[in-house]
Every structure is written in C-alpha cells, then in structure tokens.
Design goal:
It is a multi-pass membrane protein. The chain has 463 residues and is mainly alpha-helical. It has helices at residues 6-21, 24-43, 47-66, 70-105, 120-136, 145-153, 155-158, 166-174, 181-214, 221-252, 270-273, 279-293, 300-318, 322-340, 348-370, 374-386, 393-398, 404-425, 433-450.
C-alpha cells in the first residue's frame, strides 16, 4: 500500500473516521491494528519480524531499567542491539557480504537472494535508539506493550521515517487528541505538497534519469550532467515528498512528526546540508555513532576519523553496494576538508558561489548513489569531466526520448518547487486564507492533470 495510491487514501480516510469516533482509550488499538494491516498489505510474512523486534526491545528495555548492576544492563542492551542488527544484516547485507567475498577471493559461494523487508532499516534503528536511550537513562522504559508496539509500527512513518525518538513520539501516542480542523487542513496541505513532489516531478523526471543512467555508455558529458542534476531533483522530491505525506498523515491524527527536510539544496556548506537533508537519520548517526566515537572533542586526526567512519557507515546503511559506501565516503571526505579550510567572509555573492559549489559536490556524490556499479559511476564521472561540450548536444538530449510536453511539465513543477522551498528557506508564512486555498487548489489540479498515474514505489523503500 503506497502513499501515492488510491488504496492508501481510502485506508487513511477510514482510519481518520474511526479514530475520531472512538473513545481515547481504544485509539492506540485502532492505530496498532491499522499499522499492522498497512504493513501486511505489502507482505504479511514479514510482519513476524516487526513483532519479534518489538518484543525483544520491549523486554530488554524493562530489564535494562530494572537491573541494578551495570553488567546486567549492558547485557540486555547488547541483546537488543545484536538482535536488531542480526535481522538487518541477514536480510540486507548477507548477500552483499557473500558477493564481495566471491569477487575478492575468486570464490563461488551461493547467494540467498533474500527479499528485503520494507522499512527494515528504519524500524530497527528506531527500536535501537529506544534501547540505548533507556540504558543511558534518557527515558523510562515503556511498560504498556501496546503503546510500545505502536511506537515501532506507527504507519505514517513505518516504512521510510522520519526515524522518531521514543521521548518525542510515545507521549504523543498516549495524549488525548481532540478533533482540530487546523490539524486536518495543515495535514492535507502537507500531503498535497508531498504528492505534487512525487507524481508531478519525481516520477516524471525519473523517465529521463533512468534512460540516461541505464544506458550511460550512449551519452556524453552534457546529457550526463543534466541527468545527474535531474536525479538530485528526483531523489529530493521523492524522499521529501514521502516525508511530507507521512508528516501530513500523522498531523491529521493530531501527532507531530519531526521535520525531515529543510531546503537542503540552499546549503552553503556540507555541514549545513546534513542539518537539512534526512534530518532524522543525520541526528541518529550524530547521537548514536559520531558522539560515542568522540565527536569533535578529540585531537584533530581522531575528529577526521570520526567523521569518515560515521559517513561510511551512513553510506552502508543506505544500501548493500560499494557505490553507497563511496557516496558516504565522498561526503565524509568533503566534511573533513571543510573543517580544515579557513573561514571566509559570508557576503552575498560568496554565499551564492558556496551554494553552487556545495550543490555540485552533492551532485557528484549522487552519481555513485544512482549508478548500478562503481565501474558505471567511474565512466559517468570520466565523461562528465572530459566531454562536457559536444556539437550534437540537442540531438543527444532528443535521443533520450523525453518529449517536449514532459520537459515543459517538469519546468513548471520545478518552478513551483523552487517557490515553495524559497518561502520555506526565508521562513515566509502565508497567512491569508484565500492564498492558502489557491495554493492548495493549484497543487490539487496539478496532481490530477499533470501527475504520473502509474503508481511507483518511493526510492527509499529499497533501503
């Protein structure tokens, strides 16, 4: 059941209706059943993994809190972490490990070809953060199994985040919520923005990106540059669009999920970019990997090491492929170079040039993120830097098969996106009701008239 499908909106409408009709004390049960149904609609056999992870972390959390000696507390923390990481490794990284061994040592071990359970990278990280926070004494262990299970499986953010902390989400799940028209209207607005990003921009621009990246040998530098910029737009619209729909769906239920994207392509440094891109994951790695390694409160070489390790692990989290590890390594290396570089005056022209530079670096890294193999990425990067001009540029672009109509629709969609992001970046809030209504109608009309009707998965579902 995908967010960009009719099935989801029928499901959400039914849940909303029952939610506000039910007595508060039974709402958790409705949301839990709805969340399990939402996940089972994909593959019911993987529901057992979520239930197992839920029970392990629920019991470990209580045992961590009850244990009087530090040795027992550490034992139950490790049971929680090892259980979750074992599940994640088996389904996501086992075949990658075997394949890497086969390549490096010329072996021929058989791959298991396991199906990756949807959302496994997200809900395992969410439950691990709970166990760690209980161990550190940041939160109390949750005694109500139903509420804890709902924290793990809350359907708006189950599949691809935001990765919520128990200290933020659990109290909201328990709080008595009254129907609020403002929550409903704000939620609908976010859902419309998310759908616009997904079906008008991301799904349409993917036609161009897929054609060029799947046949990169047929194209030269200029088209490859365009395709890489197009992928930067695609992945932003696809993932932030998902987050908008998730946050909007939760808002209709009176629950505020954390912001996951904050105009990342207006960043003037890589450090700023990672405070604006996939914020919930960035904060997770900051709090549970980077800071425990020592953060920046160490000697310089160790600081650089901590940055690199954090981003290499972040790359591996995104996918079981060396391309993702290289992608993470590029970001880690550029952040290290940023910490070494001297600060420059932040006058307007210089800031604009920094934004262009950061976007260029991010796009270069996206080549490895999108390419199927390291070899493919190497060919694309080589062509980008060696043949950025060619007499037949227009003919090259035409050969991708992207029609003039699609190009015009994308230009319209990206223009609307830039306006929305600029308003957000400048913290400009539209208060006049007629302007809000007009904006919502424009988005709705665009989705209906210009959106790709074929239901396509979100990119981050594969992670």
């Amino acid at each position: 059941m995908l967010f960009n499908s009719i099935d989801y909106f029928l499901f959400l409408t039914l849940v909303l209706f029952l939610y506000y009709k039910l007595n508060h004390k039974w709402r958790w049960l409705l949301l839990l059943v709805a969340s399990y149904f939402f996940y089972a609609a994909w593959k019911v056999e993987f529901l057992g993994l979520i239930v197992f992870s839920t029970l392990v972390d629920y019991l470990c959390g209580i045992r961590i809190e009850k244990s009087s000696d530090n040795r027992s507390r550490k034992l139950f923390l490790w049971i929680s972490l090892v259980s979750n990481l074992s599940i994640l490794y088996t389904f996501k990284y086992l075949d990658f490990s075997i394949d890497s061994i086969n390549d490096f040592f010329s072996q021929n071990f058989v791959l298991y070809n396991l199906v990756l359970p949807m959302g496994i990278s997200f809900y395992t990280f969410q439950t691990m953060s709970y166990s760690i926070d209980v161990y550190k004494g940041n939160i109390k262990a949750e005694r109500h199994l139903g509420y804890f299970a709902l924290y793990v499986t809350f359907f708006p953010q189950l599949v691809a985040g935001p990765i919520e902390r128990a200290s933020r989400l659990l109290p909201q799940l328990k709080k008595k919520v009254h129907y609020n028209p403002t929550n409903l209207s704000n939620g609908i607005k976010l859902v419309l923005i998310g759908l616009f990003k997904k079906v008008v921009i991301a799904d349409r621009i993917s036609l161009f990106v897929n054609e060029v990246y799947n046949n990169s040998g047929d194209y030269e530098g200029f088209v490859l540059i365009l395709a890489t910029i197009a992928f930067a737009i695609q992945i932003y619209c696809d993932f932030s669009g998902y987050s908008d729909i998730a946050i909007g769906s939760a808002r209709m239920l009176g629950i505020k999920l954390m912001t996951n994207f904050q105009t990342p392509y207006f960043s003037s440094s890589l450090k700023e970019f990672w405070t604006r891109w996939h914020i919930s994951l960035s904060q997770w790695f900051r709090d549970y990997v980077y800071i425990p390694l020592g953060g920046n409160r160490v000697v310089k070489w160790r600081w650089y090491y901590n940055l690199m390790i954090t981003f290499l692990i972040s790359g591996l989290w995104h996918g079981a492929n060396w391309t993702f590890i290289v992608w993470g390594g590029i970001h880690g290396l550029m952040l290290v170079l940023e910490t070494i570089n001297l600060k420059m005056p932040d006058f307007k022209l210089y800031r604009f040039l920094k934004i262009v530079f950061v976007f260029s670096v991010v796009c270069l890294a996206w080549v490895f993120f999108r390419a199927n193999t390291i070899s493919d990425a190497g060919v694309i990067v080589s062509k980008i830097f060696s043949s950025t001009t060619k007499v037949g540029i227009v003919e090259d672009f035409k050969s991708t098969g992207i029609s003039l109509l699609n190009t015009l629709i994308l230009m319209y969609g990206v223009t609307i996106l830039m306006i929305l992001d600029w308003l957000n970046f400048k913290n400009i809030v539209i208060t006049k009701s007629y302007l809000k209504l007009l904006g919502s109608l424009v988005l709705l009309f665009s989705i209906i008239a210009l959106g790709i009707t074929e239901v396509k998965e979100f990119i981050y579902f594969q992670f």
